[in-house]
Amino acid sequence: MTDLPPVLPPLRDVIARHGLQASKALGQNFLFDGQLLARIAAVPGDLADAEVLEVGPGPGGLTRALLAAGARVTAIERDRRCIPALAELGDAYPDRLRVIEGDALAIDAPTLLQGAPHIVSNLPYNVGTALTVGWLSAEWRPWWRSCTLMFQREVADRIVAAPGTGAYGRLAVLAQWRSTARIAMPVHRSAFTPPPKVMSAVVHLVPTEAPAGVRLATLERLTAAAFGQRRKMLRQSLKGVTGADAAMDAVGIDPTRRAETVSVDEFVALARVLDG
Ligand code: SAM
Predict the structure, then answer these.
(1) Which terminus of the chain has a smaller tally of CB atoms within 10 A, N or C?
(2) Is 29 marked as a binding-site residue?
(3) Domain-by-domain residue ranges, the chain?
(4) Cis geometry, peptide bond prior to residue 9 (ω within 30 degrees of 0)
């Protein structure tokens, strides 16, 4: 026999009772639609007894969906006002929710969790981007199993962008050299309270084997130079990168091409020659 899910008060009541008016400074745009939240929680796949790290649970809408999906959640929330509301949720799901008050940018998340967690988060986009870049830049294989992250649509498009598109740049190369990145679902601005100015999308990242023999620092130096002058030919934009001409020659990349046309694999191949 399976346990019935706990009956929880409506999120809007929780917000009113705990005085959780959305704070602009903390980038708070809350989600209330239970069906949408359940769809987001389903993006990582089956969460029964899975470890999940949630960053920025706020009043706990997404946390509810994760717990209902059977996850064990560790949540990091910066806004002290939300902690009592989250504690109530923890009471409804004994031993399944651990809440840590603090700034996720300053917390060493891997030390909090045993085993590789799924990361699921609806964060302010600047915090989300900084964390994601950190998670993708750390030692590989990573300590996390997958990332399901809300971004403003424009940032989501830059993460999953293919070569030859205007959105393709450093973020796409960084995300895609070590993970498979896709947009799991668009999210309309009206789904949030208060609604942000722009549309959002949930991005799903699954780590892959990192290409061998390449240092992230080299790849970053290359992409910074190449996309720093994205309209220029590579022979011009890569002038400041020692060995770039010989590397393009070795890999068979025409130096009259522009950064936008260079695939992730080609950037990796260039970096490998530079590192060789
Ligand atoms: N997850 C909730 C939802 O979907 O309704 C809230 C989302 S709201 C966009 C972002 C949440 O992240 C807020 O609760 C905010 O306080 C929290 N937050 C912002 N910056 C943070 C940081 N650096 N570390 C941890 N939490 C943060």
Answers:
(1) N
(2) yes
(3) 11-207, 216-275
(4) no
Q: Which residues pair with 30 in a beta bridge?
A: 193
**Which homologous superfamily is 11-207 in?**
Vaccinia Virus protein VP39 (3.40.50.150)
Does 43 have pLDDT greater than 60? yes
- Ligand 1: residues with CB < 6 A are 26-31, 55-58, 61-62, 76-79, 82, 103-105, 122-124, 127
pLDDT tops 60 at residue 172: yes
Question: What pLDDT does residue 210 have?
Answer: 77
Stated pTM of the model: 0.95
Across 129-149, average pLDDT: 93
Q: How far is the CA of 118 from the centre of ligand 1 (A)?
A: 17
Residue 57 alpha carbon, nearest atom of ligand 1: 1
Axis-axis angle for helices 216-228, 264-275 (nearest 10): 120
Rounded to whole angstroms, how far apart are CA atoms 10 and 61? 10
- What is 216-275's CATH number? 1.10.8.100
97-101 and 179-187 strand pairing: unpaired
Tally the C-alpha atoms within 13 A of residue 29's C-alpha that lie toward its C-beta: 22
ipTM: 0.99
Is 36 assigned to a binding site? no
